[in-house]
Write a sequence for this structure.
């Protein structure tokens, strides 16, 4: 059984943080994105499609 790697990204709503979320999700990581901005929800919805 293989375990999925996990990455935690702060500042994940915009810029480099959002880009990192997309790259790690594309490479099949379990991504935990944290941000105080509501735009972070949109990023999460995009990668969870």
């Amino acid at each position: 059984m293989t375990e999925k790697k996990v990455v935690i990204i702060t500042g994940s709503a915009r810029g480099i943080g959002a880009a990192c979320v997309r790259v790690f999700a594309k490479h099949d990581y379990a991504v935990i994105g944290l941000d105080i901005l509501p735009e972070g929800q949109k990023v999460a919805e995009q990668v969870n499609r």
